[in-house]
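All the exercises in this workshop are built on plain-text protein records. A learned vocabulary of local backbone shapes supplies the integers on the structure line. Once this layout is familiar, the rest of the handout is easier to follow. An example says more than a description, so a record of this kind follows:
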Amino acid sequence: MAKFFDKLMQGAGELSPTCRQATRLQSQALERPLSLRERVGLKIHLVLCRWCKRYGIQIRFLRSAAQKQSEHPETLPEQSLSPEARGRIKQHLQTEKQRGSKL
């Protein structure tokens, strides 16, 4: 039984993409249908990697939130800074520029 499990895991490892590939596949899955090999490999990877699974949950949530917001753009808050905040930011940038700091 142990040999069977070892062979199964070895085969799964060959099918499973790296984390970088898995995150790319999850992003692409939002835009296009994945091939059978891509879907199987991704599913195997997501069973083994909780970080990539979380990434998938997060990008689906962000996509859903963005779609809902685009349907109701009037609910966006007005994005403006007070004159005082603008002055503080401008002063800080000038100070950093004089110091030769890279932001």
In short: Residues 1-69 form one domain. DSSP finds five helices and no strands in the chain.
